[in-house]
Design brief:
Elements: E1 3-6, H1 10-22, E2 26-32, H2 39-43, E3 46-51, H3 62-71, E4 76-78, H4 88-96, E5 100-101, H5 106-113, H6 115-124, H7 140-150, E6 154-162, E7 165-170, H8 176-191, E8 196-200, E9 206-214, E10 220-232, E11 235-241, H9 248-264, E12 269-277, E13 283-289, H10 296-303, H11 307-315, E14 332-339, E15 341-342, E16 348-349, E17 356-358, E18 365-369, E19 384-392, H12 395-407, E20 410-412, H13 418-426, H14 428-431, H15 439-443, H16 446-480, H17 485-490
Parallel strand pairs: 1-2, 1-4, 2-3, 4-5
Antiparallel strand pairs: 6-7, 6-8, 9-10, 9-12, 10-11, 11-14, 12-13, 14-19, 15-16, 17-20, 18-19
The chain binds ligand MV4.
Residues 130, 155, 163-164, 199-202, 205, 207, 231, 234, 274, 276, 286-287, 437 line the site of ligand MV4.
C-alpha cells in the first residue's frame, strides 16, 4: 500500500495520516469548502476539494471519493469514524473499484448494522443477551406477552437503529400498544425500516465495550475494555481504559465473548463490541460498531499499540503481529472529549473563533486535535475540538494528571466542556468508580458546576487580588523613587 486517501476530516483524519506517514505511505486528504485551510488538508501530501460545506455535498460523496482515488492512484481508503465508515454500500463500491477498504468486509458491516441480525448471530455463538427477543415484532399482544415474561420496564429498539437512536422505554403493560406504534412509525421514518424488537430495560447499567482486532488469517484478539458510561444524551464525554470494576475473570469472559461476536460476522480489522453491565455485574451484548472509535486512544495507551497501524497492516493482508497471550494492560488511561459546547447553557454548540488556543503537553499527555489558534469552529460538523488523553500507572494518578492537563489547556473565544470534565473528575462517584450511564443526569446541572467551581474561583480571586496589591506596591515604589511629585501634589 503506497497511497491512502482518508475520507474524513478533523482530528481523526490527521491522526490516521500521521500513522500512514510514519509507515512511509503517501496521504491524500479530501475536504469541503469550509475546511480549505484545515490542518488535515495541510498535513496531507495531496488534497482534493469535494464540494460545499454540508456533509451531504462533501464528505458523504461516495462516488466522488472513489473517482478521486482512482485518478490519484490511491490503493487504500480509510473512512475514519462517522460519515461513510459504516456504509456497507461504500465499502462494496471501494472494493469493486479495486481499492482496499481499510475496515471490515461489507457483509460484516451489514450484519452488525442490523441489530436483529447481530443478535441472532451472537446468540448462536453463545454470547449473553438481555432477556427479550431476537425477531422483529409488530403484534401488540405478543409484545405484552414478552413484557410479562421478562418484566417491565421493557425497551423497544429499532433494528436499524443503534447508538441509542430509535429506543422507547415502556414502563407499564397498558402503555405497550401506544409505544409500539410510535416506535414502529419512528423507525420507518428515520431508517426506512420498521423492524423493532424488545428487551428487558436494564435500569442502572454501565456501558463497557471491548476493542477487537482481526486479520485475514482467522486470528481475532481482544484489546481489553473501555468504560464509557459517562455520557450525555448518547454522546460520550469521559472514557477510560481499563474499566475500573472488572475482575480479571470478568475481563477475560467479556473479551472472549467479544471475540465470538467478531467471529460470528467474520470480522477483519478494528471493531468494538458493546456490552451493558448490570448491578449484579452480569454482562449482556448490545451491538457491535464496525469502525475505529473516537475513544480508541485510551486502548492504545494501555496496550502500547497503534490501532491505525494495525488496521493498515491487516488490510494489506498481514497477520496480526501478536497473539492474545502476548497482550497485557499497562496502567490506566482517561480521555476527555473537549467540545465547543457550553456546559452552563445546556451544552449548546459554542461557535466562534479560537482567539487563544494552547493545548497542554508533558509526559503521559496526548492531545488528538484538529484545531489551531485563530481557526473558526465550523457549524457544519461535530463540534469536538480535541480529545485530551492521559496515561499513568494507576487510575488515581491518571485522574490527577487529567486535572493538571485540563488546567493547562487554554481556550478563549468559545465555551468548552473542559469545566464539565473537571466536574466529573472531582465527583466522588467518579473517583470511587461507582457510577452508571445515568451519571450526568443524576449529578450534573449548571448550578452544580458553578458550585463546584467556587473553591477554585475563590483561590483565583485571592491570587488576583494579591497580585494586584503587589503590583500596586511596586507602582508606588516606582513612582516614589524617581520623583515624588504625586506626594507633593497631594500635600
Ligand atoms: C439498553 C439500555 C438498557 N437496557 N438496552 C443506548 C445505546 C445503545 N447502544 C443501546 N443503549 C441502551 N440499551 C437495554 N436492554 C440502556 C441503553 C442506554 C445506554 C447504553 C450505553 C451507554 C449509554 C446509554 C444511555 C442510555 C441508554
Amino acid at each position: 500500500m503506497k497511497k491512502i486517501l482518508v475520507a474524513n476530516r478533523g482530528e481523526i483524519a490527521l491522526r490516521i495520516m500521521r500513522t500512514a506517514h510514519r509507515m512511509g505511505i503517501q496521504t491524500v486528504a479530501v475536504y469541503s469548502e469550509a475546511d480549505r485551510n484545515a490542518p488535515h488538508v495541510r498535513f496531507a501530501d495531496e488534497a482534493v476539494l469535494l464540494g460545499p460545506a454540508p456533509s451531504a455535498q462533501s464528505y458523504l460523496k461516495a462516488d466522488k471519493i472513489i473517482e478521486t482515488s482512482l485518478r490519484l492512484g490511491v490503493d487504500g481508503i480509510h473512512p475514519g469514524y462517522g460519515f461513510l465508515s459504516e456504509n456497507a454500500e461504500f465499502a462494496r463500491k471501494v472494493a469493486a473499484a479495486g481499492i482496499t477498504f481499510i475496515g471490515p468486509d461489507p457483509h460484516s458491516i451489514e450484519m452488525m448494522g442490523s441489530k436483529l441480525a447481530a443478535k441472532e448471530a451472537a446468540k448462536k455463538f453463545n454470547v449473553p443477551m438481555v432477556p427479550g427477543i431476537e425477531q422483529a415484532i409488530t403484534d401488540i399482544e405478543m409484545a405484552k406477552e414478552i413484557g410479562r415474561r421478562v418484566g417491565y420496564p421493557i425497551l423497544i429498539k429499532a433494528s436499524a437503529g443503534g447508538g441509542g437512536k430509535g429506543m422507547r422505554i415502556v414502563e407499564r403493560e397498558e402503555d405497550t400498544k401506544e409505544q409500539m406504534e410510535r416506535a414502529i412509525s419512528e423507525a420507518v421514518s428515520a431508517f426506512g425500516d420498521g423492524a423493532v424488537f424488545i428487551e428487558k430495560y436494564v435500569t442502572g447499567p454501565r456501558h463497557v465495550e471491548i476493542q477487537v482486532m482481526g486479520d485475514r488469517h482467522g486470528n481475532i484478539v481482544y484489546l481489553f475494555d473501555r468504560e464509557c458510561s459517562i455520557q450525555r444524551r448518547h454522546q460520550k464525554v469521559v472514557e477510560e481504559a481499563p474499566c475500573a470494576i472488572l475482575s480479571p475473570e470478568m475481563r477475560r469472559a467479556m473479551g472472549e465473548a467479544a471475540v465470538r461476536v467478531a467471529k460470528a460476522c467474520d470480522y477483519v480489522g478494528a471493531g468494538t463490541v458493546e456490552f451493558l453491565v448490570d448491578e449484579n455485574r452480569d454482562f449482556y451484548f448490545l451491538e457491535m460498531n464496525t469502525r475505529l472509535q473516537v475513544e480508541h486512544p485510551v486502548t492504545e495507551m494501555i496496550t502500547g499499540l497503534d490501532l491505525v497501524e494495525l488496521q493498515i497492516r491487516v488490510a494489506r493482508g498481514e497477520q496480526l503481529p501478536f497473539a492474545q497471550e502476548d497482550l497485557k494492560i499497562d496502567g490506566h488511561a482517561l480521555e476527555l472529549r473537549v467540545y465547543a459546547e457550553d456546559p452552563l447553557n445546556n451544552f449548546l454548540p459554542s461557535v466562534g473563533t479560537l482567539t487563544k488556543y494552547q493545548v497542554p503537553e508533558g509526559p503521559g499527555i496526548r492531545v488528538d486535535g484538529g484545531f489551531t489558534e485563530g481557526m473558526d469552529v465550523p457549524i457544519y460538523y461535530d463540534p469536538m475540538l480535541a480529545k485530551l488523553v492521559v496515561h499513568a500507572p494507576t487510575r488515581t494518578e491518571a485522574i490527577q494528571l487529567m486535572k493538571e492537563a485540563i488546567a493547562g489547556y487554554m481556550v478563549e473565544g468559545v465555551a468548552t466542556t473542559l469545566p464539565f470534565g473537571q466536574f466529573v473528575l472531582d465527583h466522588p462517584a467518579f473517583i470511587s468508580a461507582d457510577f452508571t450511564t445515568h451519571f450526568v443526569q443524576q449529578y450534573f446541572s449548571a448550578e452544580q458546576l458553578i458550585e463546584s467551581q467556587k473553591p477554585a474561583a475563590s483561590i483565583a480571586a485571592h491570587l488576583a487580588l494579591r497580585l494586584y496589591l503587589e503590583q500596586q506596591e511596586q507602582l508606588q515604589v516606582a513612582n516614589v523613587a524617581p520623583s515624588n511629585w504625586r506626594q507633593r501634589a497631594k500635600s
